[in-house]
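DATA SHEET
Item: assembly model
Revision: 1
Owner: S.N.
Input lines:
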Amino acid sequence: MSDSMILLLAKGAWETIVMTFVSGFFGFLIGLPTGVLLFMTRKGQVLEHKTFHHTISIIVNIFRSIPFIILIVWMIPFTRALVGTSIGVEAAIVPLSIGAAPFIARLIENSLIEVPGGLVEAARAMGATPFQIVYKVLLPEALPSILNSASVTLITLVGYSAMGGAVGAGGLGQIGYQYGYVGYDVVVMNTVLLLLIALVFIIQFLGDFIAKRVDHR
Amino acid sequence: MIELRNITKTFFQKTRAITALSEVSLTVPEGKIFGVIGSSGAGKSTLIRCVNLLEKPSSGAVIVDGQNLMDLSPKELAKARRHIGMIFQHFNLLSSRTVFENVAFSLELDHTPKAEIEKRVTELLALVGLDEKHHDYPVNLSGGQKQRVAIARTLASNPKVLLCDEATSALDPATTKSILALLKDINKRLNITILLITHEMEVVKDICDEVAVISEGRLIEQGAVSEIFSHPKTELAKAFIASALSLDIPADYKERLVSAPATNKRPLLKLEFTGQSVDDPVLSEVARLFQIDSNVISARMDYAGGIKFGVMLIEVFGTQENSLQAIEFYKSKNIKVEVIGYV
């Protein structure tokens, strides 16, 4: 493999990492509050609200049912308005974040459902406000499970970003597509695969490690 | 201190309405320990959760410390709840927090300064006997220790009232005793009014001043503990009292037991002492009057609210005629006699 190819792969790996983590960050920024709202407005919960719950739930489901490759194309006008371009890493981060957010919202909702109801009840009995219940009880208690969701999300995003590579998002996906799928360069294709595998393993390992550290159950 | 007036609670399941509580009224005077006893599904959990409005009654008034909680806004209610402590069957400690942080929880809700939290939590953990456990996580504690943490946590906000939702039901008998002793101590020392619900008559007997029996959402009997124990009016109250005194026949006696009299077999009697029984030394009287020897196999006698009650299993040695006379004698003393069989 030539030096320039190694450089290209390093750049691609870096772009993939940036896309994964930055869109993961924005995905959580949108998905976390949405998931909390989904949970809090559920039947029997502190802020029970049927209409509100159903409305968010439907929006989440709609976005979850759009195939990612179509979401990228579908969102081009919005992406262009937001970051000024529809190709490259920055442009890819927009649909990646939007694609991840509803997924994260559901994972968060499920993590919160696992928190024993008695804890919320005890907090209510002590006079906690709904906001205090969320940030002093629900989120800390669900943290190990939320961290597991985070690794699942980031790994999904590695896959999504590679898919985005095929339509001009950059990163390892684009290299794999151009040199592997189009050019059929076995060495480059396999190197891309190995790099992606390594990235997934690292994320999973770190996720498990941190989740274990904060788990006192 | 706590007054429930005509509390009714109806749940709706699909189209069906289920009445969990109907027209429940009770008053707990300041400084007293009031127990509500009932079987599972009787509505006792709903009842206690109505006192701090975790469950909002469909109608009625909930008055705690002179304040009708039903009239309060959510914000005022949250504030009122800080003076109503509550402990639970499954402790409900936060697993992500250490013992110290759990107790600090209710103080944090009030934005108490750090230094004051430190002082108050240390004080409370000493009170419940957990000085050594500040930095342990709940997962490493025993059931009794967890309930102690929960008690410390709820005392942190200086409640005037403490609600105990089956607080000892998940604990073993020895631990139950120690937690009950702690509750009694808190009641006396801090003058905290306690309302507790339980399905164990033992708990009522040990610490309550007053008791109410709940069945199918209604309070069917209430009064001072001594009154209920000596003159239970309803079958359910009698059953609960009996359950506090259940007695099993030992296995080797059971094997030898026959239902009809036979030679070389002696009657096995169960004597039941209630509040109405005459408090006389009956066993020795029977021995003297009828030349009867009694072998006590097992017995469970207790003393609550100034009266003696219990059950006793005895094997009777004597002629058949004398034995019958002895049985009549016991009955004349208002002692319930049951001939279990012959051994």
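QC remark: The first strand of chain B starts at residue 2 and ends at 13.
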